[in-house]
Amino acid sequence: MFRVLVLVLALIAYPLRVTAAPPDVDLELVRAVDTSGSMDMGEARVQRLGYLEALRHPDFINAVKGGYLGRIAIGYFEWAGRVNESSVVAWQVIEDAKDGEAFAAKLEARPIGTRHGTSISSAIRFGTKLIESNANFRVRRILDLSGDGHNNTGLPSAHARDDALARGIVINGLVILIRPSNSTGPLDQYYAECVIGGPGSFMIPVRKAEDFASAVRQKLLLEVSGLTPGWTPQPAAVTPPVDCLIGEKYPNLHEPVFPGNR
Question: By CB count within 10 A, which of 33, 92, 136, 157 is most buried?
């Protein structure tokens, strides 16, 4: 009994030293950006500028500061038929406007280009691995995936999606409908049924190039704040369930060749 009392007193006087932990964050967010061949260079530039503007907007920083801890961790990469690993902008903790500008500057320095193929599944798998390998402690984990076409190479998108959801990762979508093709059904319906998922998941459609920046900002604010839109985008007409393998059946449907594609 005496020895136990001595040990307790010793622990009170000299508490165990705890190894420093990585910074806690309210949200771990990865932006997975489509740069497939169905997107011309003009659209690719509009998309990049939209992300830059959102990261630098005061509303974004205010949303971050309004969180429980007041900081998030964010990462970025681009994908097409496979993930362009040289496009990865490594994890950064965002707490203030200086952090947001630093991350935006890294992204702005990346060259803009498009590549062949559309592998949503590769983007989801890479994003999942990126999130799983991040050392930050987090409450919420979101993979935010933009796209303007169906998965046409690699694993089926729904398979990769289901694996990510099983790991507690929410997938949201930014569906680019600037030049829509409804020959295989609405792309927003495809994303709703075959790509996004998890508690509170949502997607936002972009139908005009000039709306891209505001859509990205709105989506970023909702994700940082832990909210969802007050409305749910619906296809223009009631349609039967979408075939999640439609892109694999018609792999060249969304792959026109533009000058500058590679």
Answer: 157
Q: How confident is the model at residue 258 (pLDDT cuts 50, 70, 90)?
A: very low
**Single-letter amino acid, residue 177:** L
- The single residue listed with the structure tokens 């200086």 is 98
* Sign, Cα dihedral of 56, 60, 62, 68: negative
- The verdict on pTM exceeding 0.70 is yes
State which amino acid sits at residue 233. Answer: P
Separation of alpha carbons 103 and 52, rounded Å: 9
Token pair 């409450």 is found at 139
CATH class for the domain made up of 23-235: alpha beta
User: Over 80: is that where the pLDDT of 51 sits?
Assistant: yes
Show Cβ contacts of residue 88 under 8 Å, excluding neighbours closer than 6 positions: 75, 76, 77, 130
DSSP 242: P
The predicted-structure confidence for 96-132, as pLDDT tens digits, reads as follows 999 999 999 999 999 998 888 899 999 999 999 999 9
The one-letter amino acid code at 246 reads I
> What is the phi/psi pair of residue 196, to 5°?
-80, 165
Q: How far is CA 69 from the centre of its chain?
A: 21
Domain boundaries, the chain: 23-235
Could you give the CA distance from residue 11 to residue 2 in angstroms, rounded to a whole number?
14
